[in-house]
Amino acid sequence: MDIDAVIMMIVALVTVWGGLLGAVLHLSRHPEDTSE
Fold first, then answer.
1. Where are the transmembrane segments (predicted)?
2. Distance (Å, rounded) from C-alpha 7 to C-alpha 2?
3. How far apart (Å, rounded) are the C-alpha atoms in residues 18 and 31?
């Protein structure tokens, strides 16, 4: 693979997994209120 493709793949993986990790951390610190 070309070096540009490798860099774009790494950026995409960091974006996806970083967003997932951020969402999990946010939900663990601020759980949803389902008492309605």
1. 6-27
2. 9
3. 19
